[in-house]
Amino acid sequence: MAKVAVYNMSGQQVGEIELNDAIFGVEVNEHVLHAAVVQYLANQRQGTQSAKTRAEVRGGGRKPWRQKGTGRARQGSIRAPQWTGGGVVFAPKPRDYSFKLNKKVKRLALKSALTSKVQENKFIVLDELKLDAIKTKEMKKVLDNLKLTKALIVNDDKNVVLSARNIPDVKTISVNNINVYDILKYDTFVVSKDVLQNIEEVYA
């Protein structure tokens, strides 16, 4: 089992903890990581873009000039795509970009992402992460003590979430909403011991 250091909120090491190899010690699979990131980004798309084809643009019912004899190229409508104000050739229409990944693939991707953070020494465990009040300054102090800048903090505590939300490059997320994209996007993954135990129970 992999071991990582446990720190307090002052940035001092206070012990070590063993991680579950079933989650934090798997073989990193880049293919499923890529698939999970592509799916996440696709599912974020609204798919509401829309433009009009030549059949939908207003006007253009009359032939602009006769077919032959004018010396100009033949034209059937002033709303053809080559005309200013004409329709779009392959106009985008509202559509759903989302697609499904198998549960086992998603779970393997998540475990691969967490394992990669452990291997890169970017997995920080705290003995506890709690604030008495909503204070951005206090949260910033904790991050500075741990020398963290771009961090993903897994925590449900209201004071922690509200204190961290105004700090650039820091995001808080609940255990149930952990996703591969955020794990890979942020440099450091930060959890407290109780949250780590929760993650091991949910994803083991």
From TrEMBL:
Region described as Disordered: spans on this chain: 49-77
Keyword RNA-binding assigned: yes
GO cellular component terms given for this protein: ribonucleoprotein complex; ribosome
Gene3D superfamilies: 3.40.1370.10
Molecular function (Gene Ontology), one example: structural constituent of ribosome
UniProt KW keywords: Ribonucleoprotein, Ribosomal protein, RNA-binding, rRNA-binding
Keyword RNA-binding: yes
Signal peptide: none
SUPFAM superfamilies according to UniProt: Ribosomal protein L4 (SSF52166)
Amino acid composition bias (Basic residues), ranges on this chain: 60-71
GO biological process, one term: translation
Pfam families: Ribosomal_L4 (PF00573)
Subunit structure as annotated in this protein's UniProt entry: Part of the 50S ribosomal subunit.
HAMAP family in UniProt: Ribosomal_uL4_B
Similarity comment: family membership: Belongs to the universal ribosomal protein uL4 family.
Purpose: One of the primary rRNA binding proteins, this protein initially binds near the 5'-end of the 23S rRNA. It is important during the early stages of 50S assembly. It makes multiple contacts with different domains of the 23S rRNA in the assembled 50S subunit and ribosome. Forms part of the polypeptide exit tunnel.
Protein name: Large ribosomal subunit protein uL4
Gene source species: Defluviitalea raffinosedens
Top-level taxonomy: Bacteria, Bacillati, Bacillota, Clostridia, Lachnospirales
